[in-house]
Amino acid sequence: ALRGCSAVQRVIATVCESASSAGRAGVDALQAETVALFAQQDAPEESPFTHGVAFDCLAATGPIGVGDQSASEAATLRDFARLAPGVRAAVSALRVPTFAGLGAQVALELETLLPIDAIEKLLEEAPGTRMFGAPAGPSMRDAAGESDVLVGRLRPDPTRVNGVLLWLALDPVRIAAQAAV
């Protein structure tokens, strides 16, 4: 959406992946861990996660591989390079204790400074995105069942002259199903 107005020079993103990104087994594991913790019992040993995820946040979505990246981080960077060749990007993917959805805190560094209201207008007009009106931004739960990527917390980055910060919330299962149809 920003390509025609100001080239993106750099992207830094922290992606928050829910239990459902590990499939039905991930949802079942989060549910079983949550029930066990409330019942003051040991969590079931069978889990698709390397560590318990209920009421916790894991610094990686799975084992760390080549280039000190998880498979999710490597895949996200490959997809990003395909969509925006030549743009420098860094991604950290976290596992968070939510059942569905995906959230991402994104820091963009643009070639030239654009006013926030101009960026908001571009994002609102871009297909597949919708600005979320609440100042706190959309939650991952707000995005459940939505076909659009919800955008919020759009604001200047105080650490970069041409920097912009924003939060994205989406339902990757819904978006993938819609694309498949």
Please write out the topology.
Layout: E1 8-17, H1 24-38, H2 71-83, E2 88-95, E3 102-110, H3 116-125, E4 129-131, H4 140-143, E5 149-156, E6 163-170, H5 172-180
Parallel strand pairs: 1-2, 4-5
Antiparallel strand pairs: 1-3, 3-6, 5-6
Explain this structure.
- With 181 residues, this protein is α/β, with parallel strands linked by helices.
- It is built from 5 helices and 6 strands; from the N terminus they run E-H-H-E-E-H-E-H-E-E-H.
- Strands 2-1-3-6-5-4 form a 6-stranded mixed β-sheet.
- A hairpin with a 6-residue loop joins strand 5 (149-156) and strand 6.
- The mean pLDDT is 91.
Q: Briefly, what is this?
A:
This protein is α/β, with parallel strands linked by helices and 181 residues long.
> What is the SS-derived class?
alpha/beta
Compute the number of helices.
5
Uncertain runs are none
Number of strands: 6
Mean pLDDT, to the nearest integer, reads 91
% residues in beta strands: 25-35%
Please list the strands of the largest sheet in the order they lie side by side.
2-1-3-6-5-4
N-to-C order of helices and strands: EHHEEHEHEEH
Q: What percent of the residues sit in helical stretches (DSSP H or I)?
A: 25-40%
| Shape, principal axes of CA atoms | globular
